[in-house]
Amino acid sequence: MAVPLSTLHPDTLEFDAAVLHVTDEGGVELDQTYFYATSGGQPNDTGIIKRNDEEFKILDVRKKDGHVLHILDRTGLESGDKVHCVIDEARRAKLRRMHTATHVLCAVLEKTDGAVVTGNQIGEERTRVDFKLDNFDVARIPFYFEEANRIIASGAPVRRYVTTREELMKDPSLVKLAMGFPEDVTDVHMVEIEGYDLQPCGGTHADGLEGIGTLVFEKTESKGKSNRRISFTLS
After folding, report:
1. CB contact burial 164-199 (16+ within 10 A = b; e otherwise)
2. Domains and CATH numbers, the chain
3. Is pTM, for the whole model, over 0.90?
4. pLDDT tens, 122-168?
């Protein structure tokens, strides 16, 4: 599966495309798309697809069998249609900031106490991170957030690039998630927070830490033996 265009070009909010296929269920596949499809704990982009003066609202964007399907509020588009697409800028911006902040917090958890991230769910307003850590000490939470916000305050740039699976596997420690790295991905999108973190990720990210906001702790939960969940917002 190729790297989605949205991961390398998160600033692209409008583009032209052609309809390749419309599924029986109404999913629309385009010849190119900068809309982000739900994946890796990050929800999909929303926006509109225009055909001349007609507008179709995007309710969902999904991956299926290596294809990206746009789920619309109504039917009407057909194969061969030329369309103009507009991504919801406010939603994209919030998710970029939140996803980048999540990388910072996960890097702190890993580097300071050896936590292994087991999952996350990114949202516009709040996010949760699940991780495995023996002997978790709730008293360490203020330190995690202070350290994460110190890193964010550095304003470090964020770099995105593509490498191969073979190159990535030369250093397996770059794969941070407990589940490992998907077997079907050959073109690997890397995200580097300069000086602090480097890992494969297909999400959309800010161009740098400056301006993404301050991490604010909400709550922690136990999700079983050695498994914990931390929820946070950005202010």
Report:
1. eeeebeeeeebebbeeebeeeeeebbbbbbeebbbb
2. 5-87 (2.40.30.130), 92-234 (3.30.980.10)
3. yes
4. 999 999 999 999 989 999 999 999 999 999 999 999 999 999 888 98
